[in-house]
Amino acid sequence: MRVLLLKDVYKLGLAGDVKKVADGYARNFLLPQHLAVGASAGALQRADRLRSTAAVLRAAENREKAAIAAAMEGLVLTFGARASDQGKLYGSITHQMVVDAVLAATGEKVDRRAVVSPSIRELGTHRVQVRLTADLIPALTVVVHREDEAPVVQAVAEPEAQTEG
After folding, report:
1. For the chain, which residues score pLDDT lower than 70?
2. What is the tens place of the pLDDT at every residue in 118-143?
3. What is the helix (H) or strand (E) element at residue 47, kind and residue range?
4. β-pairing, 88-93 with 18-20?
């Protein structure tokens, strides 16, 4: 089914885009949530106006959240947790725990769904990204140490870019 997106949909497209999606995804999620409409002739005429309006709103949101992103970029959060001798945690450092620590450190409230990295299940230093907007994705450093030990901050290896070959 072809749909016209009314709002930005993560991992699908931006407002004003016409996308082909599975019928069930459109009927059961996009249409009931008012994220999209069927791509009829009338809806396609609205696409350009929708794209320009959405671009203005995205730019305003980026300006609004730029200060938050600057405060979060490079932030180091430390967590104490129980772990096995092999360094595996009994549980994990969840997205909600990261969001709560960001709130305590910066005073900025962030939605837990904005944390795009997987839950942390090992001791050590980890890189976590927080998706504030489609364009603003600051990276945080999360240090996980044993509850009864002092934290040790290590350099985080940047993920190497995938080369096509």
Report:
1. 150-165
2. 889 999 999 999 998 888 899 999 99
3. helix 41-72
4. unpaired
- Listed in sequence order, the residues at least 6 apart from 131 whose beta carbon sits closer than 8 Å to its beta carbon are 10, 114, 115, 116, 137
Which amino acid is located at 9 in the chain?
V
Give me the torsion for CA of 41, 45, 51, 56, rounded to 10°.
-140
Q: Tell me the Cα Rg of the chain.
A: 20
Q: Using CA atoms, how far apart are residues 22 and 44, in angstroms rounded to an integer?
A: 19
Residue 95: per-residue pLDDT: 92
Measured CA to CA, the distance from residue 9 to residue 63 in angstroms comes to: 20
Please state the CATH superfamily assignment of the domain spanning residues 73-146 in this structure: Ribosomal protein L9, C-terminal domain (3.10.430.100)
**What are the extents of the domains in the chain?**
2-64, 73-146
Per the CB < 8 A criterion, the answer to whether 67 and 108 are in contact is: no
**Percent of the chain, pLDDT > 70?**
90
What is the CATH code of the structural domain delimited by 2-64? 3.40.5.10
First to last CA, the chain: 34
| Predicted structure pTM score | 0.71
* 53 neighbors 14 (Cβ within 8 angstroms): no
Residue type, 101: A
126: its two tokens? 């980890």
The encoded tokens of residue 122 equal 């090992």
